[in-house]
Amino acid sequence: MVSSVEARPLILVSPFIASLLSLLLLALCTPWFNIWENAFSDLGRIKNGLTAVVFNGLVSTTGAILLVYATSVARYLAAPYRALLVLGGYSLTMIGVYPEDYGRLHFYVSLVFFLASIAYMVVHAMETSVEGAVIVALGLVNLGVWTAHFASNFPPGAAVPELVSLVSMLATLARDLGKTASGQS
User: Is the preceding peptide bond at 155 cis, omega within 30 degrees of 0?
Assistant: First the structure.
């Protein structure tokens, strides 16, 4: 049987798991969406009607939840971690407020979100634990996936690098929120 202490990280990240699963479900239910050729933000284009409303609402709400976590649940994390979570939460909210139809503005808020996510993982280099090293490695994998996408157009769409980043960030957040729930920092 799983104790409440062991289940706590999963409980704390459950809104983020639900958001990720909702995003994947929305993508699967959208006939034209191709994970290899599209970016998830394509779902948020205003011309996509209800799909856009659901996507942009989901992204903005998830960003707002991340802001709440950064300023309350994660209050025991060191300042650099909290600052990057606040930056990530704010920029994720802005991705939903300024969908792809806003052009460069959307690109910049997306870039800030993914760079803040990578930086959040790489900041774990301050730790001397094996877990910290694994999280830094996740951040570097993310950097490599995004570099391949931008430098070589591989894959042609951004959804795969986005998904790698989101899953890595979710794992990192679960670990960190689990530590804060147990009183560690």
Answer: yes
Asked whether the beta carbons of 58 and 33 are under 8 A apart, the reply is no
Task: For 79-127, write each residue's pLDDT tens digit.
Answer: 999 999 999 999 999 999 999 999 999 999 999 999 999 999 999 988 8
Separation between Cα atoms, residue 173 and residue 9, nearest integer Å:
9
Q: Helices 50-71 & 4-28, crossing angle to 10 degrees?
A: 160
In sequence order, the 6+-apart residues with CB closer than 8 A to the CB of 21 are: none
- Residue 139 neighbours by CB under 8 Å, 6+ apart: 118, 119, 120, 121, 122, 124, 168
Q: Where are the domains of the chain?
A: 4-181
Residues 15, 115, 93, 38: what is their CA dihedral angle, to the nearest 10 degrees? Answer: -90
> What is residue 3's predicted lDDT score, i.e. its pLDDT?
64
Per the confidence metrics, is the pTM higher than 0.70? yes
52 in Cβ contact with 99 (< 8 Å): yes
